[in-house]
Design brief:
By secondary structure, the protein is α+β, with helices and mostly antiparallel strands. The chain folds into two domains: about 70 residues, Arc Repressor Mutant, subunit A (Orthogonal Bundle); about 180 residues, Beta-Lactamase (2-Layer Sandwich). It contains eleven helices and nine strands. The chain has a six-stranded antiparallel β-sheet, with helices on both faces. Helix 2 crosses helix 3 and helix 6 packs across helix 8. The longest helix has 17 residues. The radius of gyration is 23 Å and the shape is elongated. The C terminus is likely disordered.
Length: about 270
């Protein structure tokens, strides 16, 4: 186990160890399991107990998770269930087009994938939720960069270092800007082996009710099973799926969110 250094890391290490055991654990056990001194474990346990995330078991010399952790676990399960409609929409789209489908947002110079459904092909390129890939080399990333406010996009192009992954990767800022102009004009983005040889993709925007782009929806496949022309033929289905996902995301907007929050999030 990596050595915990910050107070938060120490707290999480102890909570994770207690949760993993599924029974009461002693201070001595936690010190040995986490590699922390007993004094440190004792101090952290006191703080967690005061916060209600840890409590003493029937045997007063051992500890179990507290009521706040149990409440948090239930809330986490409910939050995960709340995203099921998005996954169901991606599954429907992947089944219709016969390729993998994913939803992502811009995070600086990277794309963070929020949800992903793999189509059941033996030969495929795997991406997991929360994975990040370079924005300039994938369809969703280029799409979201293209729709940034011009001043912000120009700043990113000026300051960015765009790595070349294949012979098809566009790394020149001027060439990227021309690509972004084409994307805005067409309303969709393509990935032609720019991140991985043989990997193709197409992406469309997910817009809120105000027309702002809040995410990107993409399908992805590998050659020779698919082609760019084949992916483009599925754009109508992708736009329909993006509309349904947008409706769900609007209904699940964060408490207190406003347009300023969305603009800040889009900028990464």
């Amino acid at each position: 186990m990596p050595k915990a250094t910050s107070a938060i890391e120490k707290s999480l290490a102890i909570l994770e160890r207690i949760a993993a055991e599924r029974r009461a654990v002693t201070l001595t056990f936690l010190a040995e399991a986490t590699g922390m001194p007993k004094q440190t474990v004792h101090r952290v346990l006191q703080q967690l107990e005061e916060a209600g995330t840890v409590q003493r078991s029937v045997r007063r010399d051992s500890f179990v998770l507290g009521h706040r952790m149990r409440d948090l676990a239930l809330s986490t399960l409910r939050a995960a269930a709340a995203t099921l409609p998005i996954r169901a929409e991606l599954e429907r789209l992947a089944g219709e087009v016969g390729e993998s489908a994913n939803l992502g947002i811009l995070n600086g110079y990277s794309v963070r994938y929020l949800e992903r459904v793999e189509y059941a092909w033996r030969l495929r390129f795997t991406i997991n939720p929360n994975d990040e890939l370079p924005a300039h080399a994938v369809a969703i990333g280029k799409l979201l960069l293209a729709y940034l406010p011009p001043r912000l996009r120009q700043e990113l192009l000026r300051k960015g270092r765009f790595e070349r992954f294949t012979d098809w990767t566009v790394t020149d800022p001027a060439a990227l800007e021309r690509e972004f102009e084409r994307i805005v004009a067409d309303g969709y983005s393509l990935n032609n082996q720019e991140y991985h040889i043989g990997l193709l993709g197409a992406a469309v925007p997910v817009r809120n009710r105000d027309g702002e782009i809040i995410a990107g929806l993409a399908i992805q496949g590998v050659m020779p099973r698919t082609s760019l022309q084949s992916l483009v033929s599925h754009l109508p289905s992708m736009h329909e799926a993006a509309g349904r996902i947008a409706e769900f995301l609007e209904d699940q907007a964060p408490v207190g969110a406003d347009s300023n929050d969305r603009s800040a999030a889009a900028a990464g």
